[in-house]
Design brief:
single chain
Amino acid sequence: YMARLIAVPLVSTLIISAMLLVLDRMLRLFEFVATEGGPVSVVWRMLANLLPEYLGLGIPIGLMLGVLLAFRKLATTSELDVLRAVGISYT
């Protein structure tokens, strides 16, 4: 249950951040390929090589956002109070 509450914002944040970072770099790469006259497949390979770096930036942000949103949902639906009442700690 908790993993699902954390995973949904994590995955969506990863997808959004990767798309935004790739779009920023894609314009520069397409411009470079257009001026140099190279094949477009080079751009896709270069962007694929940049994805691990972008995921390295997005995973900590997504994890933090996922945990914050999961605790927010638990707090607003009073599930956090129930968990504390039966003796389960936050950790």
